[in-house]
Amino acid sequence: MIASSVRCAACVLAVAAVPLFAQSGDAAKGKAVVESNGCLRCHRIGENGSRTGPNLSEIGDKRSAEQLKTSITDPDAEVLPENRFVAVTLKDGSVVRGRILNHDAMSVQLIDGKQNLRSFLTADIRGYTILTKGLMPKPNLTDEQVADVVAYLSSLKGTEAP
After folding, report:
1. Fewer C-beta within 10 Å: the chain N or C terminus?
2. What pLDDT score was predicted for residue 21?
3. Which residues span the domain enclosing 70?
């Protein structure tokens, strides 16, 4: 009876693990997907890419595979405060959008879509809106490509101090 229960539990675990193994991706293919789908127009990995969006160089240390998958398949599900964009409306009516770097009583600093650092005195600002939706387009990827990208991003970890 005990041996039968142990075998049954082993079968349940094996069947439950099948989706995990089916979802494992190829990091090399994931890197190719990232490079060919325009991800580096906003994101930075190592010395490549833009500083406009979040730096992904060490993302494997910061986010779980499941969090990475959600960030790819449902980009608006969670936008971390350090990755929020703002739309700053100046007193002259012009609007500047970018990722907020700092905001204090005197000024707002951001990096715009052209990677320019911009700073505005609060006296020159009519208002600003924090943008939390629609920042990253939802990529048109297959399940296999998503698994590959997750494998690649999971492999991006910081270097250990000597």
Report:
1. C
2. 38
3. 25-79+145-157
